[in-house]
Structure formats: C-alpha cells, structure tokens
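Suppose a classmate hands you a notebook page containing two proteins, each written out with its sequence and a corresponding row of structure tokens. How would you begin to make sense of it? This section walks through that situation. The first entry is reproduced here exactly as it would appear on such a page.
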Amino acid sequence: MTAPVIVVEDRQDYALLTINRPEKRNAMNRQARTEMMQALTALQGGPKAIVITGTGASYCAGMDLKESVTDREQGITTANQEWRDVNVAMRRHPAIMIAAVNGYALGGGVTLINVCDLAIAADTAELGMPEIGFATYPGLAGPSTQLCLGRKRAGWMILTGKRIDARTAEAWGLVNQCVPAAELMAAADTLARHVAQFDATALAACKGALDTVPAVVTDWRQAFDFGESTNALIRDTTDAQRGGMERFHAGQRNPGQGRTGS
C-alpha cells in the first residue's frame, strides 16, 4: 500500500495535519487532496483547532503540476475542482484552522495559508505565486490573496511573481506572526491549545462571522444586527455564555481573560 502523505496526529487539544511529500516540496497530488479531504471529514465535530504544516523545507508548493500535465494528456480534468473543494471544506469546517508555515509556500501553498483562520510562519519561509511565469492567473491563490490584501500588495505578488519573505507576509497581514524557525511548532502548539480552551459553538460562530462581515454584510446597522443574531444563535446552542457570565459575577476568570489572555 502507498504510504499516507497527509499524516494526522491527535494532540488531545487539537489535531496536527502534516503534508509529507518533501521530495515533491509537499505539492498536492491526487492522493494528498483525497487524504486531506478525508481527514477534514473525519475531524468534523472533533478537535476545536487544526494545525496544518509541511515536512522538510517546504510548506506546500501548490498543485502537483507534473501530475496535472499527465492528467490533461489523459483527458482527466478534475484536479482543480478537487483542490477547490479541499480549500472550501477548510473554510466551512467548524474547527479553527492554523497554518504553521515551515518553508516555501508557492501558488496553492499560499491558498492553503489564506484559507486558514490564523497563521504563524517561520522566519525562513517565503510566499509567492509563480503562475504569471506560466502566463497564468493564480486561480485560487490570486482570489484568496485579493480577499486578504489591498490591491497594490496583491498585485505585487500576482503581477511580478516575486516571493515575499515571512517578515513581509507578517507586515502585510498574510500571516499573524513570524517566529524563528526553531520555535515554529512550539508557537503553533501554544496557539492551538489557547484556541482550544474556548467553547466550540462560539468558535465556529465567530469563524463564520469573519467571512460574513464585511464580505456579505457591509452596512453598519446590519452588521450590528448580525452580531446580535450570532450571539442569539450561540445562546440557543450552548450554555457557555451563561456559564461565562456566572463565573465573571463570581469573580472568577474565564478562558483567555486577563492581561496576558492566557
């Protein structure tokens, strides 16, 4: 049997998904796409956070272009749809997705960062979209970056094909934090465990809200109404809000409360 290329580890408070194709710079071939979708499905209703990282010097080099060329020669045209489905599944998944960017993230690798809710990058990582060199618009990395960045910064990546380093990615807002490479997984572990202390229903609702305002709701009054309805939905689903208020009135700290938010 072929060895798995998406390695799933149960870290108790969260799940760690590692792309294990270092000899192919962790490019997403059909096996990787299938296993990633299977892992996301299996983790539905499980851990509150999922960390995604790569093996070796690359985070993810995007789609496996050699396989894609072979597919086209054989009349197989499902690769892009499969990859799109994986990324949409990550956005719709109730768990908080955290990218631990250990190395090069190119093309679809940038998409794999953008669809995550939070991202930490090693200071040795580089992000880029080489598609313009193939006379191609980056079909997923382009739109997802344009949703995250202003026009000039997105244009720099799409129109020049030049890579940006992790410090620049942090300054631009493509990742939340840049840390020394040796500290990356420890930082991702700390962040995932911090997120996992919160109520699952509230986390999923807040994740959904990030995609709704301002992408769908842009009017201020509608946005405030949306905030109220989101909290009403949380209250209808879990007693966590009531428990939080009871702890507060009793002088007890809630998860994340306090100066350090620990």
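The notebook's second entry, a different protein, reads as follows.
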Amino acid sequence: MSTLITRLFNVKYPLIQAGMIWCSGWELASAVSNAGGLGIIGSGSMYPQVLDDHIQKCKAHTSLPFAVNLPMLYPNIEEHIHTIIKNKVPIVFTSAGNPKTYTEILKSNGITVVHVVSSVKFALKAEQAGVDAIVAEGFEAGGHNGHDETTTLCLIPMVKKMVSIPVIAAGGIANGKTMLACMALGADGVQIGSRFVTSEESSAHINFKNAVLQCKEGDTKLTLKELTPVRLIKNDFYHQVQNAYEKHATKDELKELLGRGRAKKGMFNGDLKEGELEIGQISGLLDEILPAGEIVRQIIKEFRETQKSVQKISL
C-alpha cells in the first residue's frame, strides 16, 4: 500500500495512531509501528523526564519509525523540544497552537513535522508555516476539537482542495470501511484515536476502556468551547458542566469547575464519575479490547475487502 503518507513516514500502511494524553505511551506506539502503522507517543500528559523515558523505551521495542505528539499548550514545551531533538525522534505531530513557532527548529534537526487542524483556514496557515503534512480532524473526533463543528465528510475534501501537502484524515475512523471512505474523499492516510484507546497496550485505565465500550450513539458531546472544545462521555462531571451552563456560568467559573487533573482522574485513574472522559463519536461502534497489532491487521484486512467489493458495484 503506497501513498504520499507511507512514503513520507517510511511505513507500510497509511494508518497513524493518534497521540492521546494518558492513553498513548511507548507500549502502544511501538506496537502500532511494529504492525506497520505509525505509532505516536502522546507527550501532553508527560513530564520531560517521563517523555525521555518513553522515547527511549519505544526505540528499544521497535526499529521502525514512530512519532511524538506535541501539544503547543504544554507549559514546558521547550524541554519537550530539547528531549525530542536529543533522542532524534523522526516525526513530530504538533497540535493546539501556532505551527510556525517550532516547525523551523524541528525541521532543521531533520524531523518531519505534521500539524493537526480542524478547518481549511488553519490548514492553509499550517502549510504556510512549512509543515510536511497536516491532520484534518473532523467534529466527530474525541478529545480537543475545533469550534466550527465541521464533520470529517465535509472537512477532508475542502482541505484537500486547498493545500498541496499530504492530508491525513481524523475523526470518526475506527475500521477499514471508514478508512477507505476517508481516502476516497482525498485523504492520503488516516489517524485513529478512539479505537486504540481500547487496545491492550493503551495506558488508559481499564474502567475508562470499559466505559468506552459501553458507549452508544449520542453518549458523547462536544462542550467547554469557551475554554477549549472537548468531546466527552456524558458522566457526572459532564452533567456538572451542563448545570453550570444552565446557570450562565462565566468562563472563570467553568475554569474553576474543570480544575486541574480532570483528564488524568478519568482516563488514567479510572474515576468515571468526576473524571474527564475524552472519546470520539465512533466509540458507539467499538465492542472489544484487542492487541494494537490485531487492530491494525483487522483494519487493513477490512480496507482491502471493502475496496474489492466497491469495485464490483455497477451503476
């Protein structure tokens, strides 16, 4: 399977595992890379020394390319940049900020840079900043998202039409059929998050994994746009947020309610009531925990089977 993305990253399949906070450590990243995809370490929940440890362990468990996701909002980002360069990480995915800030220094150190966007406007800005590829993430995605609520079905062809660099689709992708659909829309590859949350190697708490598997249609909602939009499972904390909205809470009051450590409490420590449980709409389709390598294998198998069945359709 050869696309602009497989050639850019030197991987077998154009399938990227998203760098999700509290879920994407070295075990998951190395397993996905060993299976032919591109594994990503999610650095947003890591202290600099912890990231250094994860990178070194990932390198010890795979000889294949892997990446680090670097949220631009991270408070000690300069230390993360130093750690990434020191360890010669081949690929970095930046997100939640201005790609212009660190793209030049990363590329000058031989690192391939990808930036995550949620709109055509920011896709163009990322291209102008000199990134090598972009992830166009639709409204369906879990975690932090865009304000405009543009769905993947609409976003991918609009972005692909406007940029000349490779485009990776994200949001609402969990199997071979959704992967093929996104590539039919023009994507050169796909990034998958929620499906890998429910992998054996994911560092998410088992309580959170099981909560994801129990999700049905409508069990997640994009909220907290005043701070930074995030898609959450509707648990007790989510309902506290909704009650705050009904009382016309100010931005500062929402910040106080969110507090610190909510995401860790929910996704890493397994507090399903008071924790922040970030997951995508596609969670309603997930029903089992599997090894990451098996997830990759199943996705590629279904992709190929669906591709053949579509070719047989006559109009």
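A careful reader of the second entry would note: The two ends are 27 Å apart (CA to CA).
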